[in-house]
Design goal:
Layout lengths: L5 H19 L7 E7 L3 E8 L31 H11 L3 E6 L4 E8 L8
Helix pairs in contact: 1-2
The structure holds adenosine-5'-triphosphate (ATP) and magnesium ion.
The site of magnesium ion has 5 residues, from helix 1.
Length: 120
């Protein structure tokens, strides 16, 4: 179980799902997958899509504020969403990373299961 701030966590998922929708909407059969995996110590939330993908871009740079990959420039956005996600997840004691896939992109949020974070 994670006891955490639902408003902040919702913002993270809203950003990740909005990105997945935005960056896959022009492919023929857009698919977005949302998974939850739990081990003894870790809860993982995974959002993946079959959109434009992360190319050969350095995935860690995507979390820097205002940074957008070259293949994203024809889509609307300011490059703020993922930097907010990272800041929130660090505040909640977890981590977030992007992974390249053969097709599309994958974002993995990990939060320690025992985490009990009281904010507000
Ligand atoms: N699902 C995805 N598929 C491909 N690239 C992605 C995906 N999600 C994020 N990115 C890349 O990471 C960059 C940063 O994402 P971020 O959410 O911060 O910015 P944005 O969506 O472009 O703008 P904003 O969130 O401010 O509307 C994107 O511009 C894009 O290059
Ligand atoms: Mg975004």
């Amino acid at each position: 179980m994670i006891k955490t701030d639902p408003v902040l966590l919702r913002q993270v998922f809203s950003n990740l799902i909005n990105n997945a929708v935005k960056f896959s909407k022009n492919v023929e059969n857009p698919r977005i997958k949302i998974e939850f995996k739990k081990s003894k110590q870790l809860c993982e939330f995974i959002v993946s899509d079959n959109g434009i993908g992360l190319g050969d871009h350095d995935t860690s740079r995507l979390f820097k504020i205002f940074h957008r990959a070259p293949n994203a420039k024809k889509f609307p956005g300011t490059g703020i969403g993922l930097s907010n996600c990272e800041r929130i997840i660090i505040l909640l004691g977890g981590s977030i990373k992007a992974e390249k896939q053969e097709v599309g992109a994958k974002f993995i949020v990990s939060i320690p299961c025992s985490n009990s974070c009281e904010i507000r």
